[in-house]
């Protein structure tokens, strides 16, 4: 078992001139990537970063960000990638919670925070790395921490070890088949766990990676795919649909494409059929896995032969060394999916109660409760049925509705909040917020704007509605099911962005 950094250094020695990474402005060979990572590692050591410390990566997706990840790992520290477009209070909360020993920045982010030593990656390149020698890596220690949406309004840090990352690389590559000759395209953000599959796995295997743009640009993706004869890429369902809808999609050269890993969303069979037709030599893998189980832990292979049998695709069967258990209640044939195996996280950082709730021992195996309801089909494949809590997936991102509600509940004048996921005629899949306020003349647009300042872009609701009376259940709690029904009925019937609808006793004013 080798750590990622040792593999990259190996490739720097054995194929020094081969392209490792290209962010669209510059390409770095493996030799250049390793040299720059060593330089940054020397600088991190100089500011006091030691094994086990945490380093926040405050950089846009770029070659520099990949150098920062590898440089952090070279000093046996843990990298913490963040979304540079997030509101600063949220970024500050991550810096505080992670107790970052250093922050790696660019010129544009260098003055944002000073709560820890700030390392400008451009300036760090002036320091010699000639004497830097990496030490052995403690494979049980965290390689990275990704912050996921939390029910309390505060994100939770998921600690994934080098060992778990290695187990994922080994297991998933049985299906993906990435070799040193592969040419891979990245579509995910580096603070999203798919980056482990579409950036770090290819580098581990000695392949070449083209980084997609920070903002999804379909024509740029297609250009990368065809110009560079891409063999492998990962893309959530909405990305695949967006690309396949472009005029002339079938005219692109996808002859070299051998594997598409998708998932994180319900897949459109028509979209997958388009890709299988346009790329006759490819396989499509529907992957499932929470961040807590290192990106993907079950897989279902979609082919031209089996696609016609499914309107909804299964999430498949476990990867090698993954154990699954369904926690069933009341004699049901479905239950909560629980995952055990070497890919399961170490823990949530400083969340003892959550760790106790989500992690448990059964038959000497350590399981993680996913919160997902599943059952088996007649072929032994797992079928995803939905959540048992208030989490949703929007455009591939896992979002806890409680965290979206939190900033609205803290706003003066707001008495109650319900957050829901909707399919809107104009905006597609998005989040909507229903509020009850003291003053019915409150400016809902400004309320949405102020609350969104506390949320990252992927968690910001596009719609907000006002209800003058929250319907209650028999127990006296908000009848969220009825509120959802009212809102969904409205969004399905109305195409305008501003309107008012009335029911027997409730009124929704929507902007």
Q: What strand line-up does the widest sheet have? A: 2-1-10-9-11-12-13-14-15
Molecular shape: globular
What's the CATH topology name of one domain?
Rossmann fold
Task: Determine the N-to-C terminus distance.
Answer: 55 Å
CATH class of one domain: Alpha Beta
Tally of DSSP β-strands: 28
Do you know the CATH architecture of one domain? 3-Layer(aba) Sandwich
- Radius of gyration, in angstroms, nearest whole number: 23 Å
Explain this structure:
By secondary structure, this protein is of the alpha/beta class. The strands form 6 sheets. A 9-stranded mixed beta sheet has the order 2-1-10-9-11-12-13-14-15, with helices on both faces. Strands 16, 17, 19, 20 and 21 form a 5-stranded antiparallel beta sheet that branches. Strand 22 (391-394) and strand 23 form a beta hairpin. The chain is globular and about 70 Å long. Residues 494-507 have low confidence and may be disordered.
Quick recap:
The chain is of the alpha/beta class. 29% of the residues lie in helices and 28% in strands.
Characteristic terms for this protein:
five-stranded antiparallel beta sheet; GMP Synthetase, Chain A, domain 3; alpha/beta; Luciferase, domain 3; Rossmann fold; 511 residues; nine-stranded mixed beta sheet
